[in-house]
Write a structure and sequence with these properties.
It contains eight helices and ten strands. It has 279 residues and is an alpha+beta fold. Strands 5, 6, 7, 8, 9 and 10 form a six-stranded antiparallel sheet that branches. The longest helix has 21 residues. The two termini are 27 Å apart. About 2% of the residues have low confidence.
């Protein structure tokens, strides 16, 4: 049984709590539409259908907030990815505000991703010239496994994230006017880099340094066989320099089962090289 506590019961719970909170507030300058889309991993089916058959005039939609996997905030790094940061100049103004205008934050660390596209439902709205924000606490070794259950959720961390998102909504509500839209660079995702092999690692999507930091290693897969560990940072795969998750995925797309190549990775201050065979 895959209960999907983080993916994406955590986002659904946040949606319900934000709806409950906003319903109880007075003097709201905006109307809000709360939608739980299905078919996201099949190809954004639900959100694509909605923007093609909207129940409201999309020209009146000021922005869209997407909450996908909010339940695994790391208590050490407290890092949360804020995607869509570049889709409106307003987002930069809000996140750089000080004093009374400052957004709610209890030591959250933001990892900004300016792109309006990615492997989640905000992409459908961005393609309709609607500013978006995408909140995400990162992948983990329980992703798409039965072990993604309630006992792994960081409930206090998610509460702080929900309060932060509410402060974003409140700040945009005070502005009144419809948010300006900005085009951004298209993000390369697993759907644009098609590959048939895997190294067997879970990337740390909150890592902001060069390379791909390993957040999980699957037993029996190539990375496990060469002794790769959580915390290692992959810097190259074959002839491809790995600077990000996107370049890592592009590198994987060059290989098929049975191919061998070298992988270079850092462990602390040590640089390691090993040969992997894709199965």
């Amino acid at each position: 049984i895959h209960n999907g506590a983080d993916d994406n019961a955590s986002g659904t719970a946040a949606l319900l709590e934000i709806a409950r909170t906003l319903k109880g507030l007075k003097n709201q300058q905006s109307n809000y539409l709360f939608i739980a889309f299905s078919g996201e991993e099949l190809g954004l089916y639900g959100s694509k259908y909605f923007v093609e058959h909207p129940t409201v005039d999309l020209k009146t939609v000021s922005y869209m907030i997407n909450m996908d996997m909010l339940g695994r905030l790391n208590d050490s790094s407290k890092t949360i990815t804020v995607g869509g940061y570049g889709t409106s100049p307003v987002w930069g103004e809000l996140y750089n505000a000080t004093g009374k205008a400052k957004l709610y934050n209890t030591s959250l660390v933001y990892r900004y991703d300016s792109s309006g596209t990615g492997p989640s439902d905000h992409t459908s709205f961005y393609r309709k010239d609607i500013p978006v924000l995408f909140y995400f606490t990162g992948l983990h070794s329980d992703y798409h496994r039965p072990t993604d259950d309630y006992d792994k959720i960081n409930y206090v961390g998610e509460l702080h994230i929900v309060r932060h998102i509410l402060s974003v909504i409140e700040a945009t509500n005070k502005r009144g006017a419809k948010l300006a839209f900005s085009k951004t660079k298209e993000a390369q995702t697993a759907t644009s880099a098609r590959f048939s092999v895997t190294l067997g690692i879970m990337p740390d999507y909150t890592f902001s340094g060069a390379g791909v930091r390993v957040d999980g290693v699957t037993e029996g897969r190539p990375a496990h066989k060469i002794g790769m560990k959580v915390g290692d940072i992959i810097t190259s795969l074959g002839s491809t320099q790995v600077n990000s998750v996107e370049s890592y995925m592009q590198a994987l797309s060059n290989y098929k089962k049975g191919d061998k190549t070298n992988v270079v990775y850092q462990r602390g201050k040590e640089n390691l090289t090993a040969t992997v065979e894709f199965q």
